[in-house]
């Protein structure tokens, strides 16, 4: 079973390591305790939306990027292909409302 908090922790850890930063540096910038951020990265704790936004900001990443990475990892684990754009049929079914990415 795919667990959101584990995928989120992996995304945050991968981003931090790719930047060559320590857990201590990011926790300080995000104003989150070192221990709590470590638990989030290990998938042991759920992050609130406020905390997640603070950590993403400390990493210099848009929150939407972090969530998209998590979503892509979950889709991969589930064997689901998620299109990068909104399919035309879905855009039509939305009642003519223009959707971001609809073509």
From TrEMBL:
Domain named HTH cro/C1-type: residues: 12-66
InterPro entries on file: Cro/C1-type_HTH (IPR001387), Lambda_DNA-bd_dom_sf (IPR010982)
Pfam families: HTH_3
Source taxon at top rank: Bacteria
Entries under SUPFAM superfamilies matching the protein: lambda repressor-like DNA-binding domains (SSF47413)
GO-annotated molecular function: DNA binding
CDD domains according to UniProt: HTH_XRE
Protein name (database record): Transcriptional regulator, XRE family
Organism: Brachybacterium nesterenkovii
């Amino acid at each position: 079973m795919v667990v959101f908090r584990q995928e989120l922790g992996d995304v945050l850890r991968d981003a931090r390591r790719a930047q060559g930063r320590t857990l201590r540096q990011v926790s300080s910038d995000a104003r989150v305790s070192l221990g709590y951020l470590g638990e989030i990265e290990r998938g042991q704790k759920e992050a609130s939306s406020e905390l997640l936004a603070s950590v993403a900001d400390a990493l210099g990443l848009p929150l939407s990027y972090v969530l998209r990475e998590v979503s892509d990892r979950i889709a991969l684990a589930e064997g689901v292909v998620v299109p990068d754009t909104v399919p035309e049929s879905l855009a039509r079914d939305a009642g003519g409302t223009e959707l971001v990415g609809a073509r």
